[in-house]
Fold this sequence. Notes:
mainly alpha, single chain, globular, 26 helices, two-stranded antiparallel ribbon
Amino acid sequence: MWKLKVADGDNNDPYIFSTNNFIGRQVWEFDPDYGTREEQAEVEAARENFWKNRHLIKCNSDLLWRMQFLREKNFKQTIPQVKVGDGEEITYEIAKTAMRRGAHFFSALQASDGHWPAEIAGPLYFLPPLVMCLYITGHLDTVSQGITYTVISNEDGGWGFHIEGHSTMISTTLNYICMRILGEGPDGGRDNACARGRKWIRDRGGVTSIPSWGKTWLSIFGLFDWLGSNQMPPEFWLFPSFLPIHPANMLCNCRMVSMPMSYLYGRRFVGPITPLVLELREELFLQPYNEIIWKKVRHLCAKEDLYYPHPLIQDLMWDTLYICTEPLLTRWPFNKLRQKVLEVTMKHIHYEDENSRYITIGCVEKSLCMLACWVENPNGDYFKKHLARIPDYIWVGEDGIKMQGFGSQEWDTAFALQALLACNLTNEIGPTLKKGHEYVKDNPSGDFKSMFRHISKGSWTFADQDHGWQVFDCTAEGLKCCLLFSLMLPEIVGAKMEPGRLYDSVNILLSLYKNGDLAAWEPATAPKWLEMFNPTEFFANTIVEHEYVECTASAIQALVLFKKLYPGHRKNEIHNCITNAVRFIEDKQMPDGSWYGSWGICFTYGTWFALGGLAAAGKTNKNCLAIRRGVEFLLKSQRDDGGWGESYASCPNEKCFMSANTLEADTGNNCMYPKVLSLYETVISICIYPKVSSLYETVTYAMYYVTQTGPYNDLNGIYIIDPNGASISVNCMLQQLCPYRHAYLSLYQ
């Protein structure tokens, strides 16, 4: 049986190291002797139940670790269940009881190091490249146990880009290959998964129309010729800095994917041609492999995968590289430069690996960087250090074993603590708050500017400290938590953070400040026209950093509180930042009064952050038209049952799609998450509502779904991400984090 281990790492292992003794690390370990027969049967029942309902409810409920934690802590809910009948008045005592019940249950889910564990997965193209990499390198046994539980395809036989999505060529092909690697025959897999998946691929002309990332992985695996892929010359990393097309101008995620891809392309690396590879060549193509004219398939992309068609200028660029540039760079004397630039590229990869403790920025880069290190030296320490960090990406739920985008420990904990603080139950949950405070105070302290990186001193990551990549809304939320704890008695919640470290956090937020808007990872200084060179067909907004309403709103809230508590530090700069940030949010409001959310679903999520930022800056319904329009949007979009059920389709279509009622939304079996967000929005906007029943209906709905032991009916939602699990790409979704729903419900009941 699988078991979640927290803050686990071997300090005596020379291939794994940590900056903070592995605080925040969450890894799964398989122990065949762990658990009683009854507990093992309970896990199997959860898995079987998910399988039977997989086409109806595609999100899992993270049951395995929740059952483990509650069992280990011997948690027993002692607060009586609240039941509210139709039309029954919700009194103060009823609401407080429900809130206490939720807060106590949520506290029981806290890990020993102070954070709240959670899955952050959902895209179905994450895991197969890792399996392919381990197959090539001969280390498949690292993660093979239990992987077959991930074989969950759509009803048409294909795999979606993410768990809610329609079937796509890239996900179907990669998952089919993954199943075959793991031992399934051509007609194997539960529910005839292999045969149905292969039919889906062949019915659409075979894998020659797989998108660019798929072509790259198939070339690496020996199922495609590099001549059929667009060129990725590693000489790019030697471009002079004055050029707009320069690595420093790229979104960090795009930069980190391009590095190992260009190295592997520059080496024209192809894995061993095994009997399995030869079989797959026959199974996945409609014509004999040796008869394919590769140069004719470079621009092909299946219609199911095409979200961002390449503009003509980009295709001309690829053709120029293919016809002119690449043949020149691979011939003497220019091939001498190729060898030199490959060394430079690996220097960048090693730098990024070391600074992330070999976790890397995200899961897509993880597999590629690990493979690049193996290609450079199969027996080298760099590759062995990568192997040691694979468990950081693996997550196990009732739907099987998955690869996460990366961790979300810091983000979850910041919101969890704010929710629990708002409950005003310090005397009851003091130990939980203290552990969480100690965890969130443990922010990174690095300060590096070279290798195309921005400073990170004073920032918080999205995951744990070892991850090492600064994220600025996480920094704002972490700063806000520490400021709130500084107002409380230290004997209850622990010593407050030193002012100097708070100053560091403010300084890095201000370093992102441009015209009032804030980005997510690094300053958004590159021209937006560079997006026309986005090489992916299934993502948008992936080349350069962008500004976001959510990041800006989080920064406003943190800076307003900091300015109140520490008025002497960079007072004028903070004032100007807040003023311009408010203007940015107001300018970004949509005609219907909503805000587009780049990091969640979608208009509900964006409106929540926007109203929170405006309210923190002193805006109310009386002095701010944007707030009045935002509230009107919420009231108009409220469902008949009192909730807000928004579909993930809002994200790729950039248009709000609401379901007829909350239960029918696409974000899971129940949309408690957008419901409580909208409740929060209406409260913080400090408005007098023409429809007071909006709040009453929402609170009633939320309280109704508190079950007998406290968890919230196994609710889930979807979180929008980029190809690496980080920033906005418009067209990819992550399964919503379990602590989100518990945190928000604890806060607003």
